[in-house]
Amino acid sequence: MKFVVLALLIVSALAEDINYDPIDSSSAVRRSELPGFWDGKDFPRILSASFARSPRIVGGTPVNPAHSANYIALLNVNFPFGIALCGGSILTNRAILTAAHCIHESTHTLLIVGVHNRHVIEPSQQRRTILPLRYVNHPLFNARTLNSNIAILHIDSPLTMTLQVGVVRLPPEGSPELFANENARSLGWGRVNNTGPTSSILMQAFNTVITNALCAPSFAPGIVSDTTLCVSTSATGGQGACHADEGGVLDIQRLPGNPMQIGITSFFAPAGCVTGLPIGYTRITNFRGWITQNTVPPNPPLP
């Protein structure tokens, strides 16, 4: 019995960061830029070959630190072959919502919340290391098509809710809304242009939600499903395609100061920030029941 308790304490210590040391994230890239990501994906190769990468600015604008979305999470996801930079949102003080492809086959994830500048140790930041034991991928997640691209990460040591760390608002369960033609905002620390580094500060970009009928022809059959939500980049010169973190937030704001997350950044053309090609998100309204069922950890948290 003593051995079991000791083992649990050791695991718990390994799974939570106590000392906030500086993070060397210079080698972190988007999940889709790690080696082999596009292998076996059902995306047409023409999209990755017909458009040359360009240095044009496509990344939107910085978020005012005084008005940062306090439900945004930053994920440094570790793989045997590199580190991926992903986004997420805070469901509760013990649960994070993100894209399944961000964490699929990873070794562990460093979660940072309350962050504006990811290269600085800010007083508002809280960190947790999450092991695969605490990943819950949607059972229908398809790594080839990125359908049902949604996951929840469970945290053993709960986050402390503050002005800089809060929970996200989601559409109500059973909502039939499609959000077509609404102005939506993507948030993240992704690239501000096709060839440059990822952003150090939280960025935002605005795009219009389009119907799936308009989105589907840009991708191979089966990529855009009923569980996909798309935004257009044709009117913004590609804005948003580079800047948004995979796994990150797409929200709308119908009332001042009360944003609602409607999508999880899922996919875009393999060519990167290509003007006119849509960005695909996981449609949250299709998964509200699953999110509710899986927000509570499936097993008791570690001591």
From TrEMBL:
The keyword Cell wall biogenesis/degradation does not apply. It comes from the Eukaryota. GO terms for molecular function: serine-type endopeptidase activity. Pfam families: Trypsin. InterPro entries: Peptidase_S1, Peptidase_S1_PA, Peptidase_S1_PA_chymotrypsin, Peptidase_S1A, Trypsin_dom, TRYPSIN_HIS. Residues 1-15 form the signal peptide. Residues 57-296 form the Peptidase S1 domain. This is Peptidase S1 domain-containing protein. SMART domains: Tryp_SPc. Keywords: Disulfide bond, Hydrolase, Protease, Serine protease, Signal. The keyword Nucleotidyltransferase does not apply. Belongs to the peptidase S1 family. CLIP subfamily. It comes from Chironomus riparius. GO terms for biological process: proteolysis.
